Automatic annotation (TrEMBL):
One of the GO BP terms on file: cellulose catabolic process
Reactions catalysed according to its record: Hydrolysis of terminal, non-reducing beta-D-glucosyl residues with release of beta-D-glucose
InterPro entries from the UniProt entry: Cellulose_deg_GH3, Fn3-like, GH, Glyco_hydro_3_AS, Glyco_hydro_3_C_sf, Glyco_hydro_3_N, Glyco_hydro_3_N_sf, Ig-like_fold
Domain Fibronectin type III-like span(s) in chain numbering: 453-519
The keyword Hydrolase is annotated on this UniProt entry: yes
Species, as recorded: Fusarium albosuccineum
Name used for this protein in its record: beta-glucosidase
EC id: 3.2.1.21
GO molecular function term, any single one: beta-glucosidase activity
């Protein structure tokens, strides 16, 4: 573990001694991954390293192997802040092994659309869940002396023209949905670095936006750490500096190899023949790094080419086939109602195969819950009419109705709702009582094996619940608190879920102040 003792240093005296050239050199990196050192004053170079599901170091070709952890949405499905704290400590140890001082994560951008090429890096479609999990992983990373860079601040929710696209939204949506996970993560995790996003927000690039970097981040939220650009994400030195950006960084190049041409018809035929002769059949389908990655968004929710055909064909030959899916973002599963056993494995990292096998063999009891909504048709989603780029600008017309808020408000039937997840045991919930500061509820494991359940507390405005008029348009319900509870068979526990004033508050755009809510 690195020493966390801060050296005694007279910053003003040091700045006075530096030349103008030396001062300027501290405002930008000296290469892809390092800040500029000043040896004569023992100012070291700071090394950065990606990424959200593993510390890859500073080389793209033939690097030292990195531990591959589950993707962001996979971690989000655990709904387990304690586990993410341990993941953070593990990431910090990886940073130490690779000589990195700053881990470029976590990502808390919103899963607004299933087409987002980097959506798998985020935790959830819900800002509260995202912020709590991010705070936990940040605490874990920084507990050992490594710094965490919370990113991408803010509204970097697509890859299409992300550098030039102007993301436009109401100030209420900005405050309640897109800034909220950053605010929570900062309050609970205390990140020392914030990475600005590429895109514009309401007309101004995030890296040179004084309202975001100065007024909100530093003055309102009292952030006193480092504000870093995304790689090649600075467009005007003077505007960025005056707005509050501290360091500009460059970025890497990309290289892709050739593709192997497959013969899907022959492969499906062989799979069907095999399925007819086997007692246990597993079909593994999903997405991969060619389809979910930085630099591009998906163009459809459907699986690639022949994957759906493969599932339909195998199910016809063996109706009891187990389907295992892999992806970081939502995708369409037209066959899901015909599948008797469906396991979603996310991008599970090094131990993904062992973890799935343990679940299938009953050695581990699954306890994951969806951090987003799985729905069937792209046109049913909140971003269907405003994703990509419309002449250099994009308006988030759905406002605060992101994810489950949208589907519930519109009464749209979905494949699997936000928070869905099965277990090999059963739970009974009873004796709910609510006060202004907390909710108390009893939970009991009524099954025969140990397991974990996620208790989720939602709040609803009285006017919304009673279908009466309100000054503010509200979601039917909003996640306010959650707790993951591990119980042995027959064990019963009373769990307290804390509530704060923010649990029921909305943003008043007319006065830019929070409006007091009421419980339902």
């Amino acid at each position: 573990m690195r020493s966390q003792t801060r050296p005694l240093l007279d910053v003003e005296e040091l700045l006075e001694a530096l030349t103008l050239e030396e001062k300027a050199s501290l405002l930008a990196g000296c290469d892809f991954w390092h800040t500029t050192p000043i040896p004569r004053y023992n100012i070291p170079s700071v090394r950065f390293s990606d990424g959200p599901n593993g510390v890859r170091g500073t080389r793209f070709f033939k690097p030292v192997p990195a531990l591959c952890l589950p993707c962001g949405t996979g971690l989000g499905a655990t709904w387990n802040p304690d586990l993410l704290y341990e993941v953070g400590k593990l990431l910090s140890r990886e940073c130490e092994a690779k000589g990195a001082h700053v881990w470029l994560g976590p990502t808390v951008n919103m899963l607004r659309s299933p087409l987002n090429g980097r959506g798998f890096e985020s935790f959830s479609e819900d800002p509260y869940l995202s912020g709590v999990l991010a705070g936990a992983i940040i605490r874990g990373v920084q507990s050992r002396g490594t710094l965490a860079a919370l990113k991408h601040f803010v509204a970097n929710d697509q890859e299409t023209d992300k550098i030039s696209c102007d993301i436009r939204m109401s100030h209420r949506a900005l405050r309640e949905i897109y800034l909220k996970p950053f605010q929570i993560a900062m309050a609970q995790g205390g990140p020392r670095v914030i990475m600005a996003s590429y895109n514009k927000v309401n007309g101004i690039h995030a890296s040179e936006n004084p309202k975001l970097l100065q007024q909100i981040l530093r003055e309102e939220w009292n952030f006193d750490g480092l504000v870093l650009s995304d790689w090649f994400g600075t467009y005007s030195c003077s505007k960025a500096l005056n707005a509050g950006l501290d360091v500009e960084m460059p970025g890497p190049s990309r290289h892709r190899g050739c593709c192997l041409k497959l013969q899907p018809a022959e492969g499906i035929k062989r799979s069907v023949e095999l399925a007819r002769t086997c007692k246990h059949v597993f079909v593994v389908v999903g997405l991969n790094s060619n389809l979910e990655k930085e630099g591009m968004d998906r163009t459809t929710m459907t699986l690639p080419d022949y994957y759906d055909d493969l599932v339909w064909a195998v199910l016809a030959a063996q109706p009891n086939a187990i389907v295992i899916t892999q992806a970081g973002n939502p995708f369409a599963m037209p066959w899901h109602s015909k599948v008797k056993t469906l396991v979603h494995s996310w991008y599970g990292g090094n131990e993904s195969g062992n973890a799935v096998a343990d679940v299938l063999l009953g050695k581990a009891n699954p306890s994951g819950k969806l951090p987003f909504t799985l729905f069937d048709r792209l046109q049913d989603g909140p971003s269907a009419l405003s994703f990509g780029n419309d002449n250099g600008s994009l308006y988030y017309a759905e406002g605060i109705f992101v994810g489950y808020r949208w589907f519930e408000a519109r009464g749209i039937k979905v494949a699997f709702p936000f928070g869905h997840g099965l277990s090999y045991t059963t739970f009974a919930i009873s004796a709910l009582s609510v006060s202004p500061t907390e909710a108390l509820v009893d939970i009991e494991n009524t099954g025969s094996v140990s397991g974990a359940e996620v208790l989720r507390l939602y709040v609803s405005h009285i006017a919304t619940a009673n279908k009466t008029k309100s000054r503010f348009l509200r979601a039917k319900r909003t996640l306010a608190a959650f707790a993951k509870v591990h119980l042995q068979p027959g064990e019963k526990r009373c769990v307290a879920l804390a509530l704060t004033k923010d649990s029921t508050a909305v943003w008043d755009e007319q006065g830019e102040s929070r409006w007091k809510g009421a419980f339902f």
